[in-house]
Design a protein that fits this description.
The complex is a heterodimer. By secondary structure, chain A is α/β, with parallel strands linked by helices. Helices cover about 30% and strands about 20% of the residues of chain A. The longest helix of chain A has 18 residues. Chain B is mostly helical. The chains are: A alpha/beta, B mainly alpha. The interface between A and B is medium-sized, with 29 and 19 residues.
Chain lengths: ~375, ~350
């Protein structure tokens, strides 16, 4: 690992205030807030892919949008290349945007239905050239540039004048990729880039992403439900639960030898294709607690079978997990819990992301109450 | 079916053909309403007139309604739009009035677009906040104002404060011929700048009242469709490109939101035309709205032929406005095919 991260967040938090109720106004109590992202500190090295997994509502997407400055953080810092960018505004922010691009989940909603393919891909280039004070390339030059980039994302070069609605879901997602890559960013936030696509197309898009990363050396934040996709494409993975990172480390270490009880449950909930390798189900009971003004203490404690008194006192800090280096876990009982033999959890699956293992956050079968 | 010019021509042709039955229906209804509503009208219209006048009137109106309609309709097909009871032909009034009304309607449509739509964007961008509430108060008060109340209030209170004229199209008879019967256009064609300014001053109040009353629909539709578009990811993607908030709102989001607004503005044409009847009468605007007011007997004997003619022209206006909106809809949205 290089010492200087490309992007680093320090105790990054985002709260969405709720409208004050009548009683709150009457008693002059402060408005309550949804703590979507709660004090998250993560770092991405240049050229690295960090997977971000967790169930719906765990704050993955909000974190991605904070990194790309689509949301403004409530508190905490974002350092990009050592520079604090959390407070950039106006033209400085707009010029900075060339460094980070986002690929969104919804292939339909993420493309302007009124623009042609070449206009979608060319606009970021034009805007950024202008912000740098350069002269805007001519229309013909721009079309040529766009045409040259289309094959890199697997689009035919002659689709310049088509509209987004003329493409399939995979084709649209490729246009999104072309748009994101057009300004040569250093980080792309991939917000569930494949979850709306069918299985064969998912693999194509992921392969394309990996190839482009090798060629260009940029970093990805891969936000997904799909653990198989993370195993395939990511170098490291962070697991989020209720706005906090509970475990982070190398993909192998975290997915094959999870330490945090929540990660264990998440991995155990993955359905196995091979019945002989099915493992004892690891159950979590209870509902997911609310994100509105959470109580201090481990967020997972109310549902955790290993929770004890110290868990409920204060937020557990991320600290090195026993054993592997660079593997951090936010559990005060990591040593004891990590040592508990997680029955059949230790099998490794080298399968490419065929999508056979569906979204982790989907509720398990009747009878299992994981997540 | 597709998006070529040929498809557009076929689309327009079909729609114009559909116009014919609509117009026939409108003529039948207008004729029936005018002729059935007044039972034995002649003695009432001419209470003090001599026997000859009443007999002349009876000769026309005591025949069976279908026979009257047949006569009227065959006349109309031969290009004769009829006369008033006093023998004043209808067609010249219509020909001179339509451009004047069109000028008024287009001016107020223009105001609805340049004021109403940005207000809708403002309301959506600040949804639920003070700016949004102020916008809502503004357009709802317009919507809730009866046309005659709004017009009279403006004439009595606003016009003297602003020093704007409240009647007619020019302050003095123009020294140039009124070729198009659109006051501003005529003055411009004559190259007469003072008269152009004068015509604009006369235009602004009636157009503003008409716009204020009908603006709500444009603002509300824009706000609603902006709220549908703003959460879409392509708006975020536009922001990620480094575009300023203004460009994101007005270029990417509004252009997509306008698709709905355009359709609704086409439908609003009917409301605008209906509003002209009262507005033109109060502001003494020489359009067909004022002519409709006179034809309906407000100032004497009703003029059935004139009233039907105005209804037909209004119907034509509404249908054509919707056709224009549909064509614009296709131009704005590349996903639409003309058929």
């Amino acid at each position: 690992m290089s010492p200087e991260p490309l992007v680093e967040t320090v105790a990054l938090s985002k709260e969405f205030p709720l409208p004050r109720t009548v009683t709150e106004t009457f008693h002059r109590r402060p408005a309550r807030a949804v703590h979507a992202v709660d004090s998250v500190s993560l770092a991405l090295q240049p050229g690295e892919t960090l997977g971000l997994i967790g169930e719906s509502g765990s704050g993955k997407t909000t974190f991605g949008w904070l990194l790309s400055r689509l949301h403004d953080a409530t508190s905490g810092e974002i350092r990009f290349d050592g520079q604090e960018i959390g407070r950039l505004t106006g033209a400085a922010l707009r010029a900075w945007r060339r460094n980070v691009q986002v690929v969104f989940q919804d292939p339909v909603g993420s493309l302007d239905p009124r623009l042609k393919v070449w206009e979608i891909v060319a606009e970021p280039i034009r805007v950024q050239e202008k912000l740098r004070g350069g002269s805007s390339p001519s229309r013909g030059e721009m079309r040529a540039r766009v045409q040259a980039t289309l094959p890199q994302v697997g689009l035919p070069p002659d689709c310049l004048d088509q509209y987004a609605h003329e493409f399939s879901g995979g084709g649209r997602q490729r246009i999104s990729l072309a748009r994101a890559f057009s300004v040569d960013p250093r980080l792309i936030v991939l917000d569930e880039p494949t979850s709306a696509l069918d299985v064969s197309v998912q693999a194509q898009i992921l392969n394309r992403l990996v190839d482009l990363q090798r060629a260009r050396g940029l970093a990805y934040l891969l936000i997904t439900h799909n653990v198989a996709a993370v195993r395939f494409a990511a170098d490291r993975v962070a697991v989020m639960y209720l706005g906090q990172v509970v475990e982070v480390g190398d993909v192998r270490a975290v997915l094959d030898a999870p330490v945090h009880p929540y990660t264990k449950a998440l991995i155990a909930a993955l359905p196995r294709t091979d019945p002989s390798r099915r493992h004892a189900r690891y159950r979590i009971t209870g509902d997911i607690p609310t994100l509105i003004d959470p109580k201090p203490g481990c967020r997972f404690a109310p549902r955790c079978p290993f929770a004890k008194e110290p868990c409920r006192l204060a937020d557990p800090p991320l600290r090195p997990a026993p054993g592997a280096s660079g593997h951090l876990v936010a559990c005060v009982r990591a040593e004891e819990v990590g040592a508990i033999p997680p029955s059949a959890l230790l099998e490794s699956a080298e399968a490419p992301p065929t999508g056979v293992e569906p979204a982790v956050a989907a509720p398990g079968r009747p009878g299992s109450s994981v997540s | 079916m597709g998006r070529s010019l040929e498809d557009l021509a076929i689309f327009v042709g079909k729609r114009l053909l559909q116009l014919l039955p609509v117009l026939f229906g409108v003529i039948v209804l207008a004729f029936l309403i005018t002729h059935v509503a007044a039972i034995d009208p002649c003695p009432r219209w001419y209470p003090k007139a001599g026997h000859a006048t009443i007999m002349h009137c009876e000769a026309q109106f005591s025949r069976p309604v279908p026979v009257q309609f047949y006569d009227y309709f065959t006349q109309l097909l031969s290009g004769n739009w009829g006369t008033s009871q006093s023998g004043d032909p209808v067609l010249p009034h219509i020909l001179a009035g339509v451009p004047a009304t069109l000028e008024l309607v287009l001016a107020s449509l223009f105001l609805m677009i340049v004021i109403g739509i940005p207000l809708g964007v403002l309301g959506a961008a600040y949804a639920g906040r003070w700016a949004d509430h102020l916008v809502r108060i503004f357009y709802l008060s317009g919507w809730a104002t009866p046309t005659f109340v709004g017009a009279i209030l403006v004439v009595y209170y606003l016009a003297p404060t602003l020093g704007l004229p409240t009647s007619g199209v020019y302050s003095a008879a123009p020294p140039f011929p009124e070729r198009t019967h659109m006051s501003v256009v005529d003055a411009l064609l004559a190259g007469n700048l003072p008269y152009t300014v004068d015509a604009l001053k006369h235009l602004v109040l009636p157009a503003a009242v008409l716009a204020f009353i009908n603006m709500g629909i444009a603002t509300r539709m824009t706000r609603a469709s902006m709220l549908e578009v703003l959460p879409l990811d392509f708006v975020r993607a536009a922001r990620m490109k480094g575009l300023s908030n203004f460009v994101v709102l007005y270029k990417h989001a509004l252009r997509n939101a306008l698709i709905t607004t355009t359709t609704v503005l086409g439908v609003t044409a009917g409301g605008l035309l209906a509003g002209t009847v009262v507005i033109e009468e109060i502001f003494q605007w020489p359009g067909i709205g004022a002519y409709a007011y006179v034809s309906l007997g407000a100032t004497g004997v009703p003029n059935f032929d004139g009233a039907i003619a105005v209804v037909v022209v209004f119907a034509l206006g509404v249908v054509l406005a919707n056709l224009v909106a549909d064509i614009l809809y296709g131009i704005l949205d590349p996903r639409v095919e003309w058929r």
